[in-house]
Write a structure and sequence with these properties.
Layout: H1 7-15, E1 21-25, H2 32-37, E2 42-45, H3 49-57, E3 69-72, H4 79-89, E4 97-101, E5 118-121, H5 127-130, E6 137-138, H6 139-142, H7 158-167, H8 178-199, H9 207-219, H10 227-234, H11 244-256, H12 287-294, H13 298-302, H14 317-336, E7 340-345, E8 352-358, E9 364-369, H15 381-390, E10 394-401, E11 407-408, E12 414-417, E13 421-422
Parallel strand pairs: 1-4, 1-5, 2-3, 3-4, 6-13, 9-10, 10-12
Antiparallel strand pairs: 7-8, 8-9, 11-12
Helix pairs in contact: 7-12, 7-14, 8-12, 9-10, 9-12
Length: about 425
């Protein structure tokens, strides 16, 4: 199959001519190796036992050869990182080294790589990369504050978005559907428990508890459910709840594997917005993993069926998984524009904004996600509340929908179908 160019390729095009070492990081299956292979002249695959044995015996040998040199799954031999750092200190030319990693190493390198190795996060395919429609509204343009024209139409339907939720953004799975796709996703999740945790130095004494905890986390998608809520959801009916020391490492390892990908709480500095919560919103790397952990497919989601452990949420499970799909896409586009992403929620939940995209000067674009093709005044009330508080620091306000048309409302809020939003 021909290579599908990714949004992150534009970032690499900007960085590689000036930087000697770049590390692509993200969960297994997001496409890091394939993207790096498009640029590499020498390839060392450290998930191959033979190459790993050479690397462990003489890590500096891996730095030789035509450049760029790709060190794939570098975390399996952490001294490789230190070797790259030393080569950079010795004057390696721009574009000399590419590293890919699917986990933070159990025993980290002696040096963080700061000012030597630049890390770039890679996530599953965004909606724009999946080709659902040609995007007509750019996140980068919204971040200029120029209030660009918002227009365009798409045939993408609610059923199409639901299919994308369960269909996965892992490039290697895009050709699959039905039972083969479900089998691959099940295998991915089993490997996390049976292989990835032990490789990270964490033996799982109670695999079923870990699986139930992951399902509880999936059920909490796009919520800020507390540790106690997740624990109780994972152990319904059990009087003797597991201690935090038992379950806290689950999240730690899953973060190091890039499987959980929470959206942090936004912390404004230029304009005080009173009484904001600090809890992150829960998301898995790919909403398809959440759907699979909960055992729901397209028909169940479209019928409004709930599933999995009992985690309180506002709205349907489909609505929360759609928000997760949009959050994944927005984070890809925001990163390309050198912007961060958080969420806003006041204490008690009186005001909430699903996504806050923030430039380095702390000015923001506010994004609400709505599982509907119609946007009424009630749907924009939190965006208008935020505009009143931030003034010019609010660059733009957007509602992302499942509808057919992109347009601006009379109050200036942009309404954009998810398929038409792009980098």
């Amino acid at each position: 199959m021909p290579y599908l160019r990714r949004v992150v390729d534009d970032e690499l095009d900007e960085l590689a001519p000036s930087l000697p070492a770049i590390a692509l990081e993200g969960a297994k299956g997001v496409g890091k190796t394939e993207t790096a292979l498009q640029r590499a002249a020498t390839v060392h695959r450290l998930d191959d036992p033979a190459q790993r044995a050479i690397a462990q015996a003489a890590p500096d040998r891996l730095l030789d050869g035509p450049r760029p040199v790709l060190l794939d799954e570098w975390q399996r031999v952490p001294p490789v990182w230190d070797g790259v750092r030393r080569a950079v200190d010795a004057g390696a030319e721009p574009g000399a080294f590419l590293l890919t990693g699917s986990a933070s190493p159990v025993h980290p390198p002696t040096h963080s790589g700061a000012a030597r190795v630049v890390t770039v996060r890679m996530r599953p395919l965004s909606l724009a990369e999946r080709g659902l429609a040609e995007p007509t509204v750019s996140v980068r343009a919204l971040l200029t504050g120029a209030r660009p024209d918002v227009r365009g139409a798409t045939d993408a339907s609610l059923a199409d978005y639901t299919r994308e939720i369960v269909g996965s953004g892992f490039p290697g799975l895009r050709h699959l559907s039905g039972r083969p796709l479900r089998a691959q996703l099940d295998g991915y999740l089993r490997r996390i428990v049976d292989a990835d945790f032990p490789e990270m130095g964490r033996d799982v004494r109670r695999p079923q508890l870990l699986r139930r905890w992951m399902a509880a986390y999936a059920a909490a998608t796009a919520t800020s459910a507390s540790y106690e809520t997740l624990r109780d959801a994972a152990t319904p009916g059990e009087a003797d709840k597991p201690a935090r020391t038992t379950t806290a490492p689950y999240r730690d390892v899953l973060e190091r594997l890039w499987i959980v990908d929470p959206v942090p709480a936004w912390a404004p500095t230029r304009n005080a917005v009173a009484r904001l919560t600090r809890s992150p919103k829960h998301h898995l790397a790919d909403p398809a993993l959440a759907a699979r952990l909960l055992g729901v497919g397209e028909d169940a989601l479209l019928s409004g069926q709930d599933a999995g452990p009992p985690v309180p949420r506002d709205g349907t499970l489909l609505g929360h998984l759609f928000e997760s799909l949009v959050a994944l896409s927005v984070r890809v586009y925001a990163q390309a524009a050198e912007a961060g992403v958080g969420h806003l929620r006041t204490a008690g939940g009186k005001q909430e904004v699903d996504l806050i995209v923030e430039r380095d000067d702390r000015r923001v674009v506010a994004v609400e996600v709505k599982l509907s093709g119609f946007v009424g005044d009630r749907d924009v009330r939190h965006l208008l509340w935020l505009r009143d508080r931030l003034g010019d620091d609010l660059l733009d306000a957007v509602v992302v929908t499942t509808g057919p048309q992109a347009y601006r409302r009379p109050d200036g809020v942009a309404v954009v179908p998810a398929a038409l939003l792009g980098p």
